[in-house]
Write a structure and sequence with these properties.
alpha+beta; six-stranded mixed sheet; 15 helices; 35% helix; binds glutamic acid; binds magnesium ion
Length: 450
């Protein structure tokens, strides 16, 4: 891999891990060291497992202070030569201790463990994160009290005028992703001010989450080369529609069949797909602490923003936390999938994936059934009707989400105490750090962190 990358012009590799706050952290090496580093890793203090979004550091049992080191060990299979960053490749890492054992708070290791458990059931998950982001100009970059950015567009959403205006960015982005093998399924100017969306082809296994890192870095590089800045923050302007990082996935058995199609369950799901989805739905309030992990997340996760703030499911229902997508007739055996809407760019893609699979496995093992689907906008139903049908609001603040998380034995058991406790400690740390701030200040504090 090192030789292939070098032959392709790669001079340096960014080794990328995502911390519990959802910030992607990097350590960089010249390509000459890649082979050695793939065996022995590079050092990173263990306190990165208790970092907050503002770079404050909290603590948790076993992760208390300045002593202790972990190794970031790149997975060569994840390395991608970045077409928009000449000379650079990005590789995802597993975090290990100095004895070579997995570091328990490592999100990538957690997600892989969950995917392996799924494989023990004879199932494979295929999916992708769908990226929404803000594009614009920073006024005086990186200064405290910097003014709001100038958005790259002010609508109309999905429109040809916006595309025409930002065509150089769009061309370069599509070209870069296609050239480097990430691929593009679709691109469009999105609804919110300055917002765009790109979706990439599905992946199997941990590559699903690795690809999220690669795609984000590619978008950043193309934005920079066009004199623009990008934000994956849940909200970029208080009061406006935010950025989702929805997770789409389907489940496949060993015979290569998509279990979200052609079964006797609701909307054609098989019994296994239904049980898995029901497990995800049951744990969704706790998963939200992982997938919408910041104080800013709850400025996005509100009704009427298509962010899926309700604990319910429905075919093509964009207000439901779980949107079931059947796809076009004729394509459904390939296309049918479940979309998890309450996921934003602050979510660590490994922790989100691992948590969703953990919850799905719980549903599978208990053979759960889904409730009746919801096709209406839950906000349009009376509280009494919602109660009767078992539809509730997902957490409306980080505070509530943390309480849901702490009550989840499913996620605690799946993550293990050290990951679970350190993650929860960082969420509480952010809650305290932003306590009493108004929405504007919260937005500013998160805008350029992801
Ligand atoms: N921007 C919305 C969100 O925050 C999603 C819009 C859509 O359905 O694509 O999740
Ligand atoms: Mg969208």
């Amino acid at each position: 891999m090192a030789r292939r990358l070098a032959a392709g012009g790669v001079e340096a590799v960014a080794l990328a891990m995502v911390d519990p706050a959802g910030v992607t952290r990097v350590k960089c090496i010249p390509i000459r060291r890649f082979e050695e580093v793939a065996r022995f890793g590079v050092g990173l203090s263990n306190v990165f497992s208790v970092f907050l979004v503002n770079d404050d550091i909290t603590s948790s049992p076993g992760i208390e202070g300045p002593s202790g080191d972990t190794r970031l060990v790149p997975d060569p299979a994840s390395a991608v030569a970045l077409a928009a960053s000449p000379g650079w490749a990005l590789a995802a890492v597993d975090q290990r201790d100095q004895e070579g054992d997995p570091w328990p708070p490592c999100g990538r290791t957690f997600a892989r463990r969950m995917l392996e458990r799924l494989a023990d059931h004879g199932l494979e998950l295929r999916g992708a994160y769908e990226l929404e982001f803000f594009l614009g100009n920073r006024i005086s970059a990186r200064e405290a009290g910097e003014p709001d950015p100038i958005p790259a567009h002010a609508g109309p959403g999905y429109s040809a005028p916006v595309l025409a205006d930002q065509e150089p960015f769009a061309t370069e982005l599509i070209r870069a992703l296609e050239t480097q093998g990430t691929g593009v399924m679709q691109f469009h100017p999105e609804y919110s001010t300055g917002q765009f969306e790109i979706s990439v082809p599905h992946r199997t296994g941990i590559a699903l989450a690795d690809t999220n890192l690669v795609a984000r870095h590619t978008i950043r590089a193309v934005a920079r080369s066009n004199g623009l800045a990008v934000s994956f923050a849940p909200v970029v302007f208080a009061g406006l529609v935010g950025n989702g990082d929805h997770l789409h996935f389907s489940l496949w058995n060993r015979r290569g069949r998509n279990l979200f199609h052609g079964g006797d369950g609701p909307e054609g799901m098989t019994r296994e797909a239904e049980a898995f989805s029901a497990g995800v739905l049951e744990s969704l309030p706790a998963i939200v602490a992982v997938s919408c992990p910041s104080v800013a997340s709850y400025l996005r996760l509100q009704p009427h923003r298509w962010a899926g703030p309700w604990a319910c499911w429905g075919r093509e229902n964009r207000e439901a936390g779980l949107r079931f997508v059947t796809g076009m007739v004729g394509s459904r055996s390939e296309a049918a999938n479940l979309e998890i809407k309450p996921v934003d760019g602050g979510g660590n893609p490994y922790l989100v994936l691992g948590s969703v699979v953990a919850a799905g496995l719980d549903g599978l093992e208990r053979d759960l059934r889904l409730p009746e689907p919801t096709t209406e906008d839950p906000a349009s139903l009376s509280a009494a009707v919602r109660r009767r049908r078992g539809i509730s609001r997902l957490p409306s603040s980080l505070d509530v989400a943390i309480r849901e998380l702490e009550g989840s034995s499913v996620l605690r058991e799946a993550m293990g105490d050290m990951l679970f406790d350190s993650f929860a400690a960082t969420r509480k740390g952010e809650l305290a750090a932003f306590d009493g701030m108004d929405d504007e200040a919260v937005v500013r504090a998160h805008r350029w962190r992801y």
